[in-house]
Fold this sequence. Notes:
By secondary structure, the chain is an alpha/beta fold. The protein has 10 helices and 9 strands. The model is unreliable at about 5-15 (pLDDT under 50).
Amino acid sequence: MRMRPTLSWTPGADLPPGTTDLAPVAEALRAGGALVLSGAGISTESGIPDYRGEGGSLSRHTPMTYQDFTGSPEARRRYWARSHLGWRTFGRARPNAGHRSVAAFGRHGLLTGVITQNVDGLHQAAGSEGVVELHGSLDRVVCLTCGDLSPRRELARRLEEANAGFAPVAAGINPDGDADLTDEQVGDFRVVPCTVCGGILKPDVVFFGENVPPERVERCRELVRGASSLLVLGSSLTVMSGLRFVRQAADAGKPVLIVNRDVTRGDRLAVTRVALPLGPALTTVTDRLGVSVEAAATA
Ligand SMILES: [Zn+2]
């Protein structure tokens, strides 16, 4: 189950400090067969804040759970008002050097796959192919009644029409794509129903308190089985949905390499944790490998 992140988890003081030595990461990539598992940390340089870390949005805002969302029309109204506003920011976000580097690794045949915990679509925008979106994607909408999938931009247009003049200024935005709004700012925001059956619409993302679809988990497990190493990029591995793949790789004797500024829950299972920002770190690695990043910019 995707658990709501909490601020109560404090990393153990006995963990080894992170290094700045990127050589093991470059070596793992050069060997080929690396699997990338990415988290919010790779998108912060694109202007999408993490829940944790400095200025993390969790200090201001409690993310919506599946139970809250399905349990009350009022919660859904609040969610869609926040999400609709947040979508404008997400729509403007562009891939950064970290995403472009991952796409370049893939294009040069160094990866077996990319699993991302992010719902922002920025890996694909950078040119990565076959990305498994563990927690779904904000650019799709699903009907909870009939299962119809539709593009988010269509819903955004309908919400614009239903809420002319809705333009509050948000205090901040969250990695799941919703903006921080007060109840007063949410006001009388109008939600629209499924165009097929009139049912309840939800973004096609795995909410906190909701399970990742089992077939998606199995696809990821298969990717881990087929990989020779696991490269964790920008995830604190606080939630089990990502940590389990780190455990699987470590149990199978595959090296786990982490690039994340802060300590992670996977540090004990990793051969190294590089404590550097993703964009500059991965740019250094692409330089060392002689991998061209420029051609990856398809977006
Ligand atoms: Zn429907």
